[in-house]
């Protein structure tokens, strides 16, 4: 039985792993360098109360006209997604589109696909080297022994693919390298504020896009956005910065960045109570601003054994883009096994 490794437990990696189940008899493993699933669809928990959560990555899922409805219908039928009913000020609604929230946190979408995949999922597995070894891929990580795989699927951000060491450095040809290097991403920070049970946040909206602040672009009262009202769980607030702020402070001290964001937040929402705990998240690769050209969905780096890469860097940074890439990856893997 061949071994398949998916690197990255985000939306593309998890849905690709789920698509491979039943289509092949291979043993699939998923590795991610983080401590949990989600990638940029991450949900964080309060340090004081695990029941209090906030979506620090994607805020909701937008289904455009003509998208692959079966994925949405499956998630809706299992209660993973529900229609967005809360008030979001400044949300631009596109004709024929629908917006959904994840009541259990946006990472529940990724966790659902990982469960469906039946894959062996390992966290804190940070891949560093990919090397050819006796007709297989030897994959090394920061901690632990290298392992051999027959197929490797990379779903990490494109710049992280180019940072990998080993034979992959020479396997990526000059044309491919130029294509990969042309991909670009925006950067931003997200702040999660977690409150004690009983804390009141008195604003007339569940979320709001900010247009006149140099630091803050989006504020969400996350429990209201997800339409959760429980007297036993404290509220949470999410703040996303502007792309300009993220770029200017990309390598600044995180504590200073956090304080800057909090000061701007206080000026925008002065009635906010003091949070019980705060988490500052830096998204170095937040959203794709320019995808890898002429590679819709994926790029084959090596055929025998198969080494392939994909993700939103080959499509676009939304649910549909990740699913399109996952389908392209899974189809290519099936045709090679």
UniProtKB/TrEMBL annotation:
Record-annotated Amine oxidase domain positions: 95-333
Task: List, in alphabetical order, the Gene Ontology terms for molecular function in this entry.
Answer: epinephrine binding; monoamine oxidase activity; NADH binding; oxidoreductase activity, acting on NAD(P)H
Q: Which Gene3D superfamilies match?
A: 3.90.660.10, FAD/NAD(P)-binding domain (3.50.50.60)
List UniProt keywords, sorted A-Z. Answer: FAD, Flavoprotein
* A single BP term in Gene Ontology: negative regulation of blood pressure
Any one GO CC term of this protein is: extracellular region
PROSITE patterns recorded: PROKAR_LIPOPROTEIN
Q: Which domain of life is it from?
A: Eukaryota
The cross-references to PANTHER family, in alphabetical order and at most eight, read:
RENALASE (PTHR23357:SF1)
Q: What is this protein called?
A: Renalase, FAD-dependent amine oxidase
- To which species is this protein native? Gallus gallus
